Amino acid sequence: MSATRTVRIAPSILTADFGRLAEQVQAAEAGGADLFHLDVMDGHFVPQLSFGPEVVAAVRAATSLPIEVHMMVAQPAAHFAAFAAAGAQTLLFHVEATADASAALAAAHATGCRAGVAVSPGTPVERLAPLLGALDQVVIMLVHPGRGGQTMLDAHLDKVPQLRALLAAAGRDVPIELDGGVKAENAARCAAAGADILVAGSAVYNDRATPAAALAQLRSALAPAD
Ligand code: DX5
Ligand code: ZN
Prior knowledge:
Helix content is 31%, strand content 18%. The protein is built from seven helices and eight strands, in the order βαβαβαβαββαβαβα. Helix 1 crosses helix 2 (53-62) and helix 6 (184-193) crosses helix 7. The longest helix is centred in the last third of the chain and has 12 residues, at 211-222. Zinc ion (ZN) is lined by residues 12, 37, 39, 70, 179, 199.
């Protein structure tokens, strides 16, 4: 079924050493990361604070890989231009954060970026039905947004085939990304569910292995078993 699908790995820097950010980013790039997933939190949509466009610009300066910004913020459209200017290629905002997600997608596209939405664990994928024609990507959250290092709520893997069916019925083929709790132990299940991109935060940036070694472990977990 998914034998020919290439799953991309998107490290999240949330648990990286920010004192050595450029080095940490370059270590993941050298280790085979496909893109970077940058988690922005505003203290409103989620209680936590993380970072803003300045850190995105610092990552941009450290790598030539694509950057996506996962905006866990209450007013995403107010910040699209700043993240685009900082060097993001893809703007991802929460469907729960905006009353008019279609307008927000149009505003994100107006910056020249790709645009997509994220759905928190409590949100059914049917909520995306009116947006299917305008999305470039969907993020299915497998943890409640706010912190790295949480355990995957793996019952929500069922949303991948559900969303794939909705997209197919609308004639769309867009990447589905899984975010939260991805590890070498569950990466194959994520791929089997039909994911195109796996976010890996604490699986890549931790005090047990280098980013390159951790990425190699994830890759081998995804390699076809033959
Ligand atoms: C959660 C973030 C995730 C997460 C990834 O709010 O959106 O991107 O921190 O980290 P791990 O892989 O450690 O769950
Ligand atoms: Zn994220």
